[in-house]
Amino acid sequence: MTELALYHSPGACSRVPLILLAKAQADYDLRIVRIPAGEHRAPAFQQVNAKGKVPVLVRNGEALTENVAIVSFLAQQFQQARLLPNPLDGWGYAQALSWLAWGATTLQPLVGRIRSPQRIAEGEQAQASVKAMGVAELQRSLQLADQRLAGRPWLAADDWMAPDVYLFWVVTRGTENGVDLAKLPNVAAHFARLQQDAVVLRALEREAAAAAALPPPASH
Ligand SMILES: N[C@@H](CCC(=O)N[C@@H](CS)C(=O)NCC(=O)O)C(=O)O
Prior knowledge:
This protein is an alpha+beta fold and about 220 residues long. The chain has 8 helices and 4 strands; from the N terminus they run βαβαββαααααα. Glutathione (GSH) binds near residues 12, 13 and 108.
């Protein structure tokens, strides 16, 4: 039997596989790594992923990193859940991957810049400027998604799939940090639909329960 585990930090981009595993109704072990407490730098986690990042999917004791790779594997493993279009529909599949990769390679680094400007610039003023420019760039980038979502509920198919979940995560982080959804009406509607989705709610409840069950973090 295949054993799966997901390393996830509450609120981080590992929410994407967290939600997709819920959509697939997969049986897996949720392992919380609290980035704000520095747990991703602890030797125990570095042994799981030397990159020191989440998500990590562990299958039968072997780790897989990078959201796009994890999502591709999950989509193949849980085909009935339609996490990505059928690969036999080569064009539809590639289009969905294109939206997903855009989220993971263009939008996610912007979120990182906004949330951790101290990694890029020294001094309060410089960091505030990095953050403000990141928010402006994210706001601009999201216009692409807004145009795509004009007249269609989801990015890639007739139901929500992995790229929609990625966008949902980016918008969650973006709105926490100053992105204005009033200027992105189609993205706002997409976000609201997923916020109310029973699967998404179930995944976020599992995240909250798992985090609440942990002891206070040790200092690293
Ligand atoms: N390229 C990786 C990026 C993963 C990533 O940066 N994850 C963040 C959370 S959203 C993280 O673990 N950050 C910890 C750190 O960089 O110190 C992917 O797409 O999976």
